[in-house]
Amino acid sequence: MNKDVKLSVNNLKISFRTDAGKVQAVRNISFDLHKGETLAIVGESGSGKSVTSKAIMGILAGNSIVEGGEILYDGQDLLKISEEDYHKIRGDKIAMIFQDPMSSLNPIMKVGRQLTEAMILKAKTGTKNARYEFNTKLKLLGEVINAADENLGVDNKSVVAEKLKIFDSFCIASTKVEGAFNDAYGNATQLEVEIDNLIRFLELKRKIELDDELKSIAKSFNEAFNPYVVVHNQANDDCLARLVAFVKQGKKVDGEEVLPTLKEALAIIKEALAKDKPNFFTLGYYLYCNPNADVTTLAVNELNQMTRQYLDNNFMIDFIRTAEKGVLYSHKLSIEAKKALLPELRVAIDYFKSGDIDQKTSEKFVKDLNAKVDKAIDRLSVKKNSTEYVFHTAFETAVKEYFDGIKKNPVEEKIYLKNKKKYDAIVAKGQEPDWVLKPQVIVDLDLKLANICRVIEKLCASYEMDIANTNVFDANAHVIEIIDFLKEQASRLVVKMNDRIAKAKAIKLLEEVGIPEPATRFNQYPFEFSGGMRQRIVIAIALSANPDILICDEPTTALDVTIQAQILELINNIKRERSLSVIFITHNLGVVANMADRIAVMYAGKIVEHGTAEEIFYEPAHPYTWALLSSMPDLETTEKLESIPGTPPNMIYPPKGDAFAARNKYALEIDFELEPPLFEITPTHYAATWLLHPNAPKVEMPAIIKARIARMTKERK
Amino acid sequence: MAENKEVLLKVDHLQQYFRLGKRDLKAVDGVSFDIYKGEVFGLVGESGCGKTTTGRSIIRLYDITGGSVYYKGERICAGIRSYQDAIKQARKDLKEGKISKEECEEIVAKNRVEIKAARADHKKWSRKNKDNKLINEIQMIFQDPIASLDPRMTVRDIIAEGLIIRGIKDKEYIDQQVYKMLEMVGLVQEHASRYPHEFSGGQRQRIGIARAVIMNPELIIADEPISALDVSIQAQVINLLNDLSEKMGLTILFIAHDLAVVKYFSHRIAVMYFGKIVELGTSDELFAHPFHPYTRSLLSAIPLPDPITEKNRKRVTYNPILDHDYSVEGPSMREIYPGHFVYCNTEEFNKYRAEYEGKAE
Known about the structure:
The structure holds 2 protein chains of 2 kinds. Chain A is an alpha/beta fold. Among the domains of chain A are: 185-274, Up-down Bundle (Four Helix Bundle (Hemerythrin (Met), subunit A)), CATH 1.20.120; 328-477; 625-716, no CATH class. Chain A is 56% helix and 11% strand. Chain A has helices at 49-57, 83-89, 111-148, 154-203, 210-223, 234-248, 255-274, 280-289, 300-354, 359-376, 386-428, 445-468, 475-493, 499-512, 518-521, 531-544, 561-578, 589-592, 613-618, 623-630, 703-716; strands at residues 5-18, 21-34, 38-42, 64-73, 76-77, 94-97, 549-553, 581-586, 598-603, 606-612, 679-682, 685-687. By secondary structure, chain B is an alpha/beta fold. Chain B has a domain at 7-87 and 119-289: P-loop containing nucleotide triphosphate hydrolases (Rossmann fold), CATH 3.40.50.300. In chain B, 42% of the residues lie in helices and 23% in strands. Chain B has 13 helices and 12 strands. Chain B has helices at 51-58, 81-96, 101-125, 155-166, 171-184, 201-213, 231-248, 259-265, 283-288, 293-300, 307-311, 320-323, 346-360; strands spanning 7-20, 23-36, 40-44, 66-71, 74-78, 138-141, 219-223, 251-256, 268-273, 276-282, 332-337, 340-344. Chain B has an 8-stranded mixed β-sheet, sandwiched between helices. Chain B has a 4-stranded antiparallel β-sheet with strand order 2-1-4-5. The chains are: A alpha/beta, B alpha/beta. Chain A binds chain B through residues 44-45, 530-531, 559-566, 568-569, 587-591, 593-594, 596, 613-614, 617, 627-629, 631-635, 637-638, 640-645, 647, 708, 712, 715-716, and chain B through 46-48, 200-203, 230-236, 238-239, 242, 257-261, 263-265, 287, 297-298, 300-311, 313, 315, 318.
């Protein structure tokens, strides 16, 4: 499996402030989400699974307190970034599908409008960002290359500058060609839908405004002409001319007569859409060097080959070699800075570990180290090492929290003692007070101090690894990464989005999620759809921004079996096509069997067991997983179901020891005393139960599950 | 095997149409089934296929359009509108000259007799008729325990309400009954003075069950009682219903869309699709030999707790236009073999029959 970690949650702790006290909803959970995998989080309601997903999306309720931990995504800690930065991530990079489709759609807005809204907004901001990123990265590259060789003469410097300029110009030139292509392609895509609909209507002899439709089709057709889409030739021009002639007839036009021409046009468009895309990057360079060359005569793959060779020979190989020098230099600088920083970091750790610290020195440490760490980051690198990037805020907040605690604790204690005195006085009189004595909230200073040390230690470890890996540093790969990054930014510059293109895209998307007649459905309101269809629209909206990570919060709980199966298949297919990472939250283990690659079982705000889907279903180890599995009947079950007695614990006062102990018939004495750690069963499979301790009595899983697993294995064979 | 059992509830060509502008929405369109005493009868289908409407029509939460419902052999509700429509149609036909005057009068007279009989039956079983305690014998459990419990009534009031409406005034007796019910559904006496919001989802559903069971019903209509609950709590409620039906000899009409649960819980199952029952049989038989393509597609969609088979699962899709050819002969309910009915035409009947015999050999 691809081990590219997309999102990682570490020691996340979230609680909610309520009148009755602090509800500890999520208690110290950690997991990684890899690229292209589905992670299922399973648990009863109130186990904290939805809270976790909401924390990732940054939409926690107002009374929530994030007590600790981090959610790392793309070099950022999502718990610490501002709302403004979150706007760039939410929906765009991380999208969410909610349980109830009706509550996540706007009831008075047409479905189509809701779909295109985000696309248009995204395109607007995307262009601006892309321009900025492109320019800064290129400038940085130039600076670094120049600095790499101090002996570089003025001549050489100007050569480098010239090269960068060429790169800049032809990148932009290629984006222009691509932009024109995209426009024509977008028009062609929309045209396909339009003509298709019109033909269907004409064949069914429905009443329509034929002249208006034809006018719009002729206009789109005209705009679909491009050297790489609909080529100007005798047949195509002829077809357009005929269409224009029909438009000129106005209201008198006869549907029967138009039909053959329309079919011909549809064939042309379909053929044009099926063609390969040329490589605009290489083509851009070719056209930049030979502005008058005619390349339309070549077939697309020949063209691609030719331009690629041209680019490599004349520019790219040389450019890469130059850039490599710069990258190596930048990397060297960064490693040297890190080497120099390591002892300083160790000093800081020793200082904080000593326990004897004062605010002024600490703040000086923060200021000092942060500046140095920020400087030591290899800015040229495209991949963002989260530890380095996150250190700044993490260190600052950790220190701040510690000193805030020192200030607040005595005040808190004073108030508590005052209240307690009152309370005791009433109790002493033999009455029952009509108010509750709130427990005192004391900041655990030792924990906060340990937290500071941990942040620095983590950075140290990361630095040490970087230093150890210096020898295997591959400059070439890094240069390619940087060029790819620049290419991507440049291509974003040309994403043109207007209502028409967005509409064509939205209709495509509706079709992709399996909504019949997307063109008519586009103009309907959410209430006109059935539950399953509504959920599909929500999925389409979530996908419209092309996110990296999709969070599904019980997307099928409100749906019935057949539609549930359809939606699951849909999410699975889309995941495969776009290599999405999916977090799938549900309380029904049966649903996740065909979805999940890995499963985490949550109970009372903790992950009690996690492993691959096969391990969880065939070798479950935690009593809670057993209970979940045995409480759902399958088609062969005849004996009495083993329900879980009682209800989940009140998380204002989390129980001592294992939270599940009270409902667990396999509970040992130690379960009521001490919380079990996560025991490793296999490298991918962990469970938090004392039953796995070497000294624990041997307990078999319930007969009902054992029989089922045996039966399933037999049936498979 | 079914012949010697007493039929408790008989639903005969039940029709329930809703007016939707000019046309009718046929929510339930000619549904017939019998429920025997002491059995659990499952009704499955996708949302919007009319299962809930069927359940509600039986206890007369709607005025049904056509057909009749018999409880212990007596008609408790009958549709009037279908007869009225027949009279209207006959008069229209007369105007257009399709039928003679005598024929029309005959039809009108016949339908009027039916309407009169239906009205008489209605009156006999209406709520106003307080002497009649039989109607208390059918109780309903609703899908959403939060929406179906009055938030401003204590649990005692909620559970005792039925007894009070029945006219029982002895407070001690009521309290005693309430406590007995609470214990029976796995709650404790102290819960009686609390309000519904203080309970978890599973406990609330138990209150709903206690409210239904205190009337000492013969028949309970359970309308998706577990769909809104967590898996672990679903098991609690299913076990409770199972115990109750064994202990009290209850008959249950169990409406749900989770096939695994229905299979586990019911003796016989009817599969509904767009207002019609398409297949009916004992639960084992239905799952072992599904005939109707819709049933097959439903069965193929059940999620199993088995990742390897799940990942290779092929789902069967049902498309009524492709799967049936009813241009020559329309479908009707036919018995493939004793106790197993399928909605099909002669051609399909022969095919299914051959399939069954092939399998039996």
